[in-house]
């Protein structure tokens, strides 16, 4: 009986390979599928990128009205960094703190929705995504109201003496970090949710059967298995948060300005194209380096 | 490496589990003596896995107790119980290699040098050299053996095995059965082994419990259950039986007299589960002997005459169907010892049996004969 029952299992492996002609066409197919996206990227990403790179090396004494000359002015980079390193460092600091806050809120949230929500799952997911239906700008303006000096939140915090009588939230680093946390939270939660949703609860049972307390089960099973979502989520959160300027603009003061604000003003207010381009490139390469180090560490970490 | 002092017998007392209105395990009470090999046998969906899960702590009993020695562990968290499970679905950790899967339990209990033990365990399940593979790179049978090694390595006081050999081919299955039995005798761990395979249950277990719809129908040594089943379900789940609907018509000395369709039979009172009302007269097919219609049956035996309607030659035996006067077809297995007469379809023949081999079981008033062979569930089929 049992011998017969197992016959079909192995039989799929002996399927003959497709004829050579067909496999040749199939080898081309992925490249054909790549074509539209690649063309788009070349036109609207690669070409502007080269232009931006060129702009970052223009003679800084030029201006829009007099025109710019490409003088390979590599000096633009150290100059820009010397002038704006506080904003630069602040970007990474704020985005980093916001990321920690978002993880503390987002992981339990994603876990609860994926594993515990039952029939409420879809509704809760919609709740996570719903704010995205209104514009980023409007949501941030709403936070301005929430954090305002005569708003209920500040009132409450003053009442419980977490804030002094003149203490405020708006126009402080706290407001900017809170804004970043709020605005980018869904980007962290959604990929995490996707990973945790696939987590087989029977593995958690097996872990618990094998002497792992809930904490150890989280550390040894849940966390490693949610790693892909965690990595994707942190990147999707951290990268735009670092480059953001709306939150600092609306919820902070020039003292809270991040590098995004500087680039914004370089291009649109001061019209200093070389400096804006140089700062853009600095930001981009720093983020790339951070991401690279992060992926290397997260990817090779021996999860035992 | 015994972890704690021997804990004693595993006892389930009035254990009940309901899912909504559905009762999966119904007031179950049984004792598994310490160090014994206990097999839980039953049809799909009868509550075997649910019972094991309550012992493991993965399912909270609706009521009742799980006792290990004198300790009620029914409300203990799973990771606090000296109990390990070989899961029906394996539940291997996909992100860990085979070595780390097997070492998992040891590591979680803070044991540092696991190397020797893991390798020893892997060679026990014949997976040496597979240490660095991931579960997804193994066949179903290999995964099952990893699951076994992962639980066994902890030397728990009770090992729960939920169809641990279901995915193995026959040869490996027999090998693992012997290996499991050897390990069990050596280490003296209490094994609770769930299986669909009655042969596996009977060859391996000291005690077999036959479960039916959330209850234990019968519990005992394999031979005891086979020779004298307690219910019609057991009689046909464990092996095959001819059950003839009868009514008790009286007694004579140590025997009970029953009638069926005008024929009278006697059964020793000691082989009867009930002594009045509607009953089943049961005889196993291999306990029936077949002779030609004109031949005198031996004195003291009971007999029934009929027509052979089917004869299947299966090598070690020939399996006949004999249609009785009232239309029921009895199964008769005749060993191919060379001494027996062969019968052709259409021939008249007499089946006789020693009353000591018959048994009487309770029957609902309107239940008819039950002699058609129940199809064995395929070995290894599992939900
Ligand atoms: N979580 C649950 N919710 C509702 N019903 C359940 C649940 N778990 C099990 N059941 C039901 O309880 C009954 C017993 O299930 P169980 O898994 O114990 O069966 P089993 O004897 O192990 O069967 P098999 O041999 O097929 O593995 C089944 O009818 C099943 O549908
Ligand atoms: Mg089961």
From TrEMBL, chain A:
Membrane topology: Multi-pass membrane protein
Membrane spanning residue stretches: 28-50, 92-111, 123-142, 170-194, 221-241, 277-295
Stretches assigned to the ABC transmembrane type-1 domain: 88-294
Localization: Cell membrane
Pfam family, one: BPD_transp_1
Classification via InterPro entries: MetI-like, MetI-like_sf
Main localization of the protein described in the UniProt heading: membrane
Keyword Secreted: no
Coiled-coil regions listed in the entry: none
Region (Disordered) location: 1-20
UniProt keyword annotations, A-Z: Cell membrane, Membrane, Transmembrane, Transmembrane helix, Transport
PANTHER family in the record: INNER MEMBRANE ABC TRANSPORTER PERMEASE PROTEIN YDCU-RELATED, INNER MEMBRANE ABC TRANSPORTER PERMEASE PROTEIN YDCU-RELATED-RELATED
Family classification: Belongs to the binding-protein-dependent transport system permease family. CysTW subfamily.
Protein name, per record: ABC transporter permease
Organism: Micromonospora andamanensis
Lineage: Bacteria, Bacillati, Actinomycetota, Actinomycetes, Micromonosporales
From TrEMBL, chain B:
Top-level taxonomic group: Bacteria
Keyword Transport carried by entry: yes
Pfam families from the UniProt entry: ABC_tran, TOBE_2
Name the UniProt record assigns to this protein: Polyamine-transporting ATPase
Keyword field: ATP-binding, Cell membrane, Membrane, Nucleotide-binding, Translocase, Transport
Renumbered residue ranges of the record's region Disordered: 363-383
Matches recorded under PANTHER family: SPERMIDINE/PUTRESCINE IMPORT ATP-BINDING PROTEIN POTA (PTHR42781), SPERMIDINE_PUTRESCINE IMPORT ATP-BINDING PROTEIN POTA (PTHR42781:SF4)
Organism lineage string: Bacteria, Bacillati, Actinomycetota, Actinomycetes, Micromonosporales
Domain ABC transporter: 10-238
Entry keyword annotation includes Cell membrane: yes
